[in-house]
Write a structure and sequence with these properties.
By secondary structure, the chain is an alpha+beta fold. It contains twelve helices and eleven strands. Helices cover about 30% and strands about 20% of the residues. Helix 6 (about 100-110) crosses helix 12.
Amino acid sequence: MAPKPIAIDLPSTPSEWRKMARNEAIPAPSNARLNAMTAEERAALHLKENPINLSLRDLGGWPSASSMTKPHFLTTRILWQFVTKDQLHKRIIDKVSKTATACAKITSRAMTWTLIAMFTPTAMTSPPSGTRSHGGPVVPGLDGPADDDDSGEDELSSLSAAERSQFSSLHETVSGQSESSALTPDEWSLAEGEDQAAKLDWSHLKKRLDFFLGRANVRSINDGSLRARYTGDVLAVLEVKPIRLIEKGLATLMQMGLEMMTHVLDCEEKKMTKKRYWRISQHFDEIYLTWAEIDDGYIDYLRHGYGSGDTFPFMHLKFVGPFHIHKSQDMEELGHLALSLTVQESQDYTAHISRPYLGTTGQ
């Protein structure tokens, strides 16, 4: 039986977004926080205004991602839509060549899904207090390795004018841990077939991104990635959450939206844009596959804000799951999907393998 769509209180279409953005209003922060603000900071809150009339860049008073309100999130213009596994097969996987799909299927049967073994959280129903999944304190511009900055959760916070002037647009920090490309076993080479020109590696090296959008400081930390070996191009990101998606669905999806947004901005900065941006996330004992497609003009909206003649471009996020880590059939299917998509990304990658890798400096 096909899984039922997950009910989420976020817009999935532009028309739903417009309706919601007209009806929602920006809430006030706590009295203590409000009293501590300057007159300029209070004016930037845009209290009781509708998100449809506001720009992400101009809006101050952002809370941390773990406690973000829906009206604030609507200014990101991110749409969420649940897709069934059958729809994913029909729309994407069926486009992969039969040979590539067969290689992926053979590999998924032969391999141990070490991605799960490496990233599975310890048995708990909710994250411990103070971890980045609970939104610990974040110091804007903190320049420490991701693994040494576990309080630096995915965050969207306000910056003062003085703070904004101190930082460049994007800051990337890579963990000091030694990189491991052993997320898949030796059988991984089977998925590459005879196309030895396309070299991709799974890595559990953590990566932190900071992006400054007007008054907002967007920070995310992902737990791994799929990278092109010769260019460093990130083709997919990995993320682990210690609670199931259904437990805090709205808050988690808003946080995931910010994480995907920073990944897209990172690719844009490095001149490595893509048709789709992929993400694999584990939520306790369940895994979801997410991909993003962006409208023309969406990056300009993030960079420059609301302007005259705005056509309301969006980022469309679609996700499929859950794949249960204790069900062998789900894990085989997930392995098939991930490896098939990897082969597809390999084929796309070989088309522009000559692109120079700009690295993380000077971005």
